[in-house]
Write a structure and sequence with these properties.
This protein is mainly alpha-helical. It has one domain. About 75% of the residues lie in helices and about 0% in strands. The protein contains five helices and no strands. α1 runs antiparallel to α2 and α3 runs antiparallel to α4. This is Mitochondrial fission process protein 1. InterPro entries: Mitochondrial_18_kDa_protein. Keywords: Membrane, Transmembrane, Transmembrane helix. Belongs to the MTFP1 family.
Length: about 150
């Protein structure tokens, strides 16, 4: 007997990191064209939509009631939008902006080096912010949306 829940490919595997594509784009914003940053958001939003559809289809197969399908889909969409797009995107964007401003005070360091340092700071912070944001969004959802829709 296996009491463990089945593996959720969108949240329990490497696929989860596709939701952070926009953070990589934000980290590289100082050195790449804005079209690439927008593309990274498109990739992250595609991940969010795929997870939302997965949760909705699973609930449809399991239960079939439209209300429960909508609740499961809404939960996934809201959780993923907050945990994968909005909060990490703002965090990395602001961290890179503030680091870039701070590094610009060091005029002896060449501008390309300052830009690459900003990228490095942004990239290095991604693994640090993932778990706290995921747990924080889960806590927020448990105490708001998930209580309201039951």
């Amino acid at each position: 007997m296996n009491d463990q829940p089945p593996c959720d490919i969108f949240r329990d595997t490497w696929v989860r990191y596709l939701g952070y594509a926009n953070e990589v784009g934000e980290a590289f914003r100082p050195v790449v064209p804005s079209a690439l940053v927008r593309f990274s958001y498109g990739l992250a939003f595609s991940y969010v939509v795929a997870d939302t559809m997965d949760k909705g289809v699973k609930m449809f197969v399991e239960d079939g009631r439209p209300r429960n399908v909508m609740k499961a889909s809404g939960d996934a969409l809201l959780w993923q939008t907050l945990a994968s797009i909005i909060l990490p995107g703002i965090t990395i964007n602001r961290l890179c902006a503030y680091s870039g401003r701070a590094l610009n005070k060091f005029k002896k360091v060449p501008a390309p080096a300052r830009a690459l340092l900003t990228v490095g700071i942004g990239l290095a912070s991604i693994p640090i912010i993932i778990v706290p944001i995921d747990h924080g969004v889960t806590y927020l959802m448990d105490h708001t949306y998930r209580r309201w829709v039951t």
